[in-house]
Write a structure and sequence with these properties.
The protein is an alpha+beta fold. It is built from 15 helices and 39 strands. Strand 17 and strand 18 form a beta hairpin. The longest helix is centred in the N-terminal third of the chain and has 17 residues. The protein is globular, with a radius of gyration of 28 Å. The termini are far apart.
Length: about 650
């Protein structure tokens, strides 16, 4: 790579950036750089393979990537090393797309790790354009599920060549016959999604990522002479995935697919080089397509200060890189995801990836409750707006729209999980917020009202199937199919289509109905005809009519009224929701009442107060629980529910006006 030296960044030099939702990385300037071998020439595109790992949630994608890194000699400090964000490790899911590079024989493999959850589909859409192939990881027992279809459809539409890897074949319930059935299901899925003949000629591999082996034929990974290795997968990638297209002799152009921020280097942009060679010190500028036209507008001319590439779990500084390679560049301050960076003599931008529209919106505003300002340090409307706009810039699937109120912003996203992750990150950064209930974004076509419809696949014990079908019928779901789970005795698989608004808040109800034994998979399907108002999906709430410290004496008399969300010693205020009523209507209560004292001595002792454990609602449950006239109060230390109008008299007056 030119006549310069590659310098390897030590592990402390590259760490997560909490200020940008932990989705980027920071570079510290004081670390020593170790010299690496001298690179003489830029890699030809034929020596590079760019591939994405795509899968449904919990099908073993991140574990597989760990094994690939170890096979190629990388130092992997822990399991699921690519899940470097704190929330990813806590929840066991991939939230942000990330990439790494490794050497295999004479080739360089650039591997992109993508989220499996449909709520983070924007992460998939913006990075699949960086690759020419994809390894589809499917649990051989479960087969393709709803979210598998979502990520596969995005990949096939871009002409990506797939490789099917059936994972977890070492399980006793997975037979060769079952693997054949899953292969047929995948072939039918590809055909239904409009795959080309070349895409339908996909190779099939069998693997156990946990045990660290891949095979080109069905096996359980046992027997004499069997070598546990990931080599068959890497060889298949090299043989089956086409090399990236690009001409080293043309001017430099690159479409930005990832963006990060560093306190020392500023904005760091990442993407696959479409053409030409970029070198440290080159003059570059940004290019964007103006709205409503196809004209490209140049902006923000700068110089390449740093050029970086991944090498396993570390990063290296390089002097140059060529077409087909994936690199990170520091030196420009304005270009963001979807823009093009190019040599200053290039005036035409590359086409950006099309993004699906948001389906859900929530309003984020200043926390104006009586207990606001006690826990956080980011309290004002401008601070909240600045943080949300920074999020929208690095995450194209989120849109931030100003409202008539200066301290409130409408945030549109793909689902309640995505917006819940954003809220959780903000509260950990010290923000206090008031958040409205999620609202579905409708469409109007030919005078008809359309709403987002999702495909739902549910696996439950047979005795719980009736409860699930009844609950979803109240949420306007349409029942499609029912059958036994092929890999589990006594389990039933149910398929539905359901409006997105009907699924808001259903996950906690589903967990209760199935005693925590059920699995629910959902993914956006299409916009369909509005299915009418939902049935009765929630009871009324217990609303505090007083402010102060909650007492055990008061709660003892209120337990019969419903399920409590609070415990003695917590603070409350007028209009705060402290529990769920047993009936359909709201009930105002006094949870701060104390025992009246007098000067009369009684013969008996005071009765012992025994309370049932309260239902402490977390952030995700709160998002799905609140009704239209309620608000979630989010602080770094506590999640509270409240009425949007705190005063009882005003609430009653508004209710009377609505009835009239």
């Amino acid at each position: 790579m030119g006549t310069g030296w590659c310098r390897q960044l030590q592990s402390g030099w590259w760490h997560r950036c909490s200020a940008s939702n932990e989705a980027g990385r920071r570079f510290a300037s004081g670390a020593a750089l170790a010299p690496e071998e001298k690179a003489e020439v830029v890699l030809e595109p034929s020596q590079i393979r760019n591939v994405a790992i795509i899968a449904h949630v919990d099908h073993g994608k991140t574990t597989l990537l760990d094994r690939i890194l170890r096979e190629c000699g990388a130092n992997v400090p822990r399991d699921r090393a690519m899940d470097s964000i704190t929330l990813e490790r806590e929840r066991g899911i991939t939230i942000a797309s990330k990439y790494t590079s490794m050497a295999w024989k004479s080739m360089q493999l650039n591997v992109v790790d993508t989220p499996g959850h449909a709520d983070f589909g924007g992460e998939v859409e913006r990075v699949v354009g960086m690759v020419e192939g994809a390894v589809l990881v499917v649990d051989a027992g479960e087969g393709p599920l709803a979210q598998t279809k979502f990520v596969v459809a995005k990949s096939l539409n871009l002409g990506i060549r797939p490789i099917l890897l059936l994972n977890k074949v070492d399980r006793p319930s997975v037979t060769e016959q079952r693997c054949g059935e899953v292969e047929s299901l995948i072939f039918d899925l590809f055909a239904n999604l409009g795959a080309t003949d070349a895409q339908l000629e996909f190779p099939v591999l069998y693997a156990s990522a946990r045990e660290g082996w891949v095979s080109k034929t069905y096996t359980k990974g046992e027997g004499e002479g069997f070598v546990r290795s990931m080599a068959p997968l890497m060889d298949t990638i090299v043989d089956h995935i086409p090399a990236p297209k690009g001409d080293l002799s043309t001017p430099f152009r690159m479409l930005i697919s990832m963006m990060e921020h560093d306190v020392y280097l500023g904005r760091i942009i990442t993407g696959r080089i479409a053409s030409g060679i970029v070198r440290v010190g080159d003059r570059i500028h940004g290019l964007r397509v103006t709205d409503g036209t196809s004209a490209s507008v140049p902006f923000d001319e700068g110089k390449v200060i740093k050029l970086m590439k991944k090498n396993g779990m570390t990063s290296v500084l390089v002097d140059n890189a060529g077409a087909g390679d994936i690199v990170s560049i520091a030196g420009v301050s304005q270009p963001s995801i979807g823009h093009t960076v190019a040599s200053v003599d290039v005036i035409e931008a590359l086409p950006a990836a099309a993004m699906d529209p948001p389906t859900l919106s929530m309003t984020f505003s200043v926390n104006d409750s009586p207990l606001g300002g006690r826990d956080g340090n980011q309290l004002t409307g401008p601070k909240i707006g600045e943080r949300l706009l920074a999020e929208a810039m690095s995450n194209l699937s989120i849109a931030v729209i100003p409202t008539p109120r200066q301290d409130a912003y409408e945030v549109q996203g793909r689902g309640e999980l995505q917006l819940g992750i954003l809220l959780e990150n903000m509260r950990r950064e010290g923000f206090e917020l008031s958040v409205s209930p999620p609202a579905v974004l409708y469409k109007e076509e030919n005078g008809k009202k359309l709403e987002p419809i999702e495909e739902v696949v549910i696996e439950v014990n047979e005795e719980h199937a009736g409860l699930v079908i009844e609950a979803l019928s109240h949420r306007r779901a349409e029942f499609l199919d029912m059958g036994p789970c092929p890999e589990s005795v006594g389990r039933t698989r149910l398929s539905f289509t359901c409006p997105s608004r009907g699924l808001v808040g259903y996950r906690s109800v589903f967990s209760t109905d199935t005693h925590g034994t059920g699995f629910m998979h959902r993914a956006f399907l299409t916009y369909g005809k509005y299915r009418g108002p939902l049935g009765n999906v929630r009871k009324g709430v217990l609303v505090s009519m007083a402010s102060g410290t909650i007492t055990a004496h008061a709660l003892m008399g209120l337990e019969a009224r419903g399920i409590l969300f609070v415990k003695p010693g917590m603070e409350t205020y007028d209009g705060m929701i402290v529990g769920e009523h047993t009936r359909e209507t709201d009930l105002e209560i006094n949870p701060v009442r104390t025992k009246e004292l007098n000067n009369i001595r009684t013969a008996g002792k005071d009765e012992n107060v025994k309370l049932s454990p309260p239902r402490l609602i977390n952030l995700e449950e709160a998002i799905g629980y609140v009704a239209g006239d309620e608000i979630i109060e989010v602080t770094p230390k506590v999640i509270r529910l409240r009425k949007s109008i705190l005063d009882s008299s005003r609430r009653k007056a508004v209710k009377r006006v609505k009835k009239e």
